[in-house]
Each structure stands twice: as structure tokens, then as C-alpha cells.
Fold this sequence. Notes:
With 467 residues, the chain is of the alpha/beta class. The chain has helices at 21-30, 37-47, 62-72, 90-104, 121-129, 139-148, 164-169, 173-180, 198-207, 219-222, 237-248, 260-272, 286-297, 308-311, 331-338, 359-369, 378-382, 408-416, 445-454; strands at 52-55, 83-86, 112-115, 134-137, 158-161, 188-193, 212-215, 225-231, 253-256, 277-280, 303-306, 321-324, 348-354, 393-398, 426-431, 436-441, 456-457, 460-461, 464-466.
Amino acid sequence: xxxxxxxxxxxxxxxxxxxxxxxxxxxxxxxxxxxxxxxxxxxxxxxxxxxxxxxxxxxxxxxxxxxxxxxxxxxxxxxxxxxxxxxxxxxxxxxxxxxxxxxxxxxxxxxxxxxxxxxxxxxxxxxxxxxxxxxxxxxxxxxxxxxxxxxxxxxxxxxxxxxxxxxxxxxxxxxxxxxxxxxxxxxxxxxxxxxxxxxxxxxxxxxxxxxxxxxxxxxxxxxxxxxxxxxxxxxxxxxxxxxxxxxxxxxxxxxxxxxxxxxxxxxxxxxxxxxxxxxxxxxxxxxxxxxxxxxxxxxxxxxxxxxxxxxxxxxxxxxxxxxxxxxxxxxxxxxxxxxxxxxxxxxxxxxxxxxxxxxxxxxxxxxxxxxxxxxxxxxxxxxxxxxxxxxxxxxxxxxxxxxxxxxxxxxxxxxxxxxxxxxxxxxxxxxxxxxxxxxxxxxxxxxxxxxxxxxxxxxxxxxxxxx
Length: 467
Ligand code: AMP
């Protein structure tokens, strides 16, 4: 984490930043009296022309964090694309373009165009011919224009990847790389992402030069997390977990265990009692690991039982419930585990089970925190009858992937086309090199398999199975 701005010990105000008078006046008009946390941290570097990688959620003010710098650096008299913002969805692109137009309205004639798929390309070509300063769009359509030669990025100075993690989730990596090939080497690249998985760090290493790493305040610090502790004898542990799942019925729940074998055993026990549970630990092969993570993230598996190490790269937002099957090794690990819940402003519950012999670990936690933990009533907890809920989604696995040039849009099209499924019953689509996972409403799973098997994608029959 870099210092905010050299010479400033506290958060800078907009006046401390070297903004044009027009921009200052406009921000005041928009009611932006002081920068948000992410703006205060990112804007100085954006304005200085540095590459920035910022961890920021929707609602944090991230659009202005890159938008202000982008607009300030434009040369309005130069009628060429100087800024390009890539977004994962059309909705986000529209929202970003609208926000940028508001921020740019005090400047001379700045033209901002959106280029997204799902609408016909002809009118976009016409608009591009009239020139634009900033393009906001989705990777697939931007790449289409570059291939056609209808979009020229030779004068580009700033490239923004908004919600980069979602763009990767949606299988846009290849399109993003293709687009990069059309941009000048000398450019500023700003990357915004809500989460911080390994894939994002790799993307940054490929796209950015010596980026400044900015993150808003640690999320667990201000998130709404309730913590509860129960004293549970070791043999009752599984029963206590079943009770917690039955009582709270979370869409997703992460259970931490200290050992691999424990993960497998607990997942199997929960499975035997009708819960959908999977284990995640270091002994899994990459393929299995992918499949487990996909099913947990797309909500076709409710409970993930994991070791600390395995859960490290886990990229799941807003878990409603986290359970420690046993107290963590030390207070720091405990804080990490608990920080998995209540993300992005959603309320969360973290429950820690502790055998009578493990009480000293909780004492240490209390000393570290300088406050006492809250204990729940063990008897009441154990009296909750088991009540498993079936997951809302099921996962289909298609035996084809990126290497066969399969795209999420192809799969969605095949499922929802004429007399097909409603688009709303299709969930997350995860594309890998040789396989693709699709989440569908549990009630529609059989129909979805049949549709994919009967239909063709890119002229070929697909092999599909229900995971
Ligand atoms: P975003 O995270 O970019 O989607 O922004 C969330 C909302 O915060 C938008 O409605 C912005 O208009 C608003 N906003 C952004 N920056 C500020 C600021 N400095 N002060 C007040 N509101 C802001």
C-alpha cells in the first residue's frame, strides 16, 4: 500500500488535487464534496499518469476514480480515441458512459461512445466515423471493430479495465489480449477489480508497467459481521454444523478445518445427511479443484469445507455464513477466515466451534482484541433438527472449451434460443481450456442437458453431462 500522496498525512480533498477549474466546479455541482476512500488513494496516481491496480467495489466511487483522471488528460481538440474503458456487461458500460458524460459536461465538447454486443454494428460504425474521445464497451464488440478496422486506437493514452475479475469470469481474456495488441505500448493502464485472485495479478503483470497497488480500507473492518462462539465437544461437531446450516439455510457456507482428512470426512458426513458439500484442499488435482470452486461459486454446491491454505485463492463475494469447525491456529488466521463473510456491504455471520480443551485459543483472541467474544447456547443449537436445502442451481459440464473457440455467448445462445430456456434460468458460465461449466436452475437441468445435446454449437455436437 503506497502512502496517499507524498506530503499529505490525511485524506486529500479535491482541492488538494491538481484538477482543472472546470472539473472542480463540475464535481461540486455533482455534489461530490470530498473524494471517497478509493478516489483519494487512486486519483493522485491516475492524474500522475501511473498505471494503477485498484481493488474497489461498485458503490465505492470507482468510476470517478478513473473517470476524473481520464477526462482531465484528454485533448478535446484532438478528434481521436484517447480513452478506452472495457466493461464486462452492457449494463455496466451504459452506466459508466453516463457517469463519464456527467463528469465531462463542464469541458468542451467531449464525445463518449458505447460499443457493446447485442445491438447491430452498423450504427456504431457510423458513429465511430464521426470521431470520439472516449469509448466504453464490452471486449467482444470492441475486438470486432478493431478487426474490421472501424476503430483506431493508435492515439490511445489511457486504457481502463473495469471489473476486470468479472471480465475474466465471463471468458473475455482472449478478447482483452487481442484488444491490447491494437493499443500503443506507451499508455496508461488502469485496472479495477472487486477481488484479488491470482488470475488478476497475472493479468496485471501482462498488461501493466510497474503499477501502483491501491486498496480501500480493509473490508472486514467496516463490513457488518456478527460473530458467535459455541462450546462443542469434538464428537458433536458435525451435528453442530448440521444445526447451523439448518437454522440459517445460507445459499453458500464456507467451513474451515485444519486438516485435509477432516475436510474430506466432514464433507462426506454432510453429504450423507442430505447437504450438498464438497471438500477443497491441497491434494486435489487442478481439474478437480476447478470443478469444486466453480460449483461452489455458481451455487450448485452449498457447503465448501476447506483448509486455510486451499481457501486462500478463493474468490467468492459476500458469503452469508462462515463456520470454524475448530478455532484457528492464531488470531490472525481467525481474522482472515472471518473476513470471508459480510463482504461488499452485506451482513454476514461467522460462527466458531470450540471444544472445552481449546478454550485457551479463544482467550488469546480476546486478549488480542481487547474485548470478549459472545457465546451462544450449545443446547439450543444442538436441538435444531436437520433440514437440508437443495441448492438452487445445478452444474452442467460441456466437454469443450476455450481451445475449441467456445464462447460463453455460444452456450447461452444454444440454451436460450428458440423454444429454449429463459435466460434467467442460466447462471454463471465458467470457461476453461478444455471444458465449460454452466449453472442452470435445478428444475431446468434435465431440459438444459437435452437442449445442448440435441443442438449444435459452431456446427458441432456437444458432449454434456450433469456434474
Ligand atoms: P461507483 O462506485 O462508481 O458506481 O459510484 C457510486 C456512486 O457514488 C455514484 O452514484 C456516484 O455518483 C457517487 N459518487 C462517486 N464519487 C463520489 C464522491 N466523491 N462524493 C459523493 N458521491 C460520489
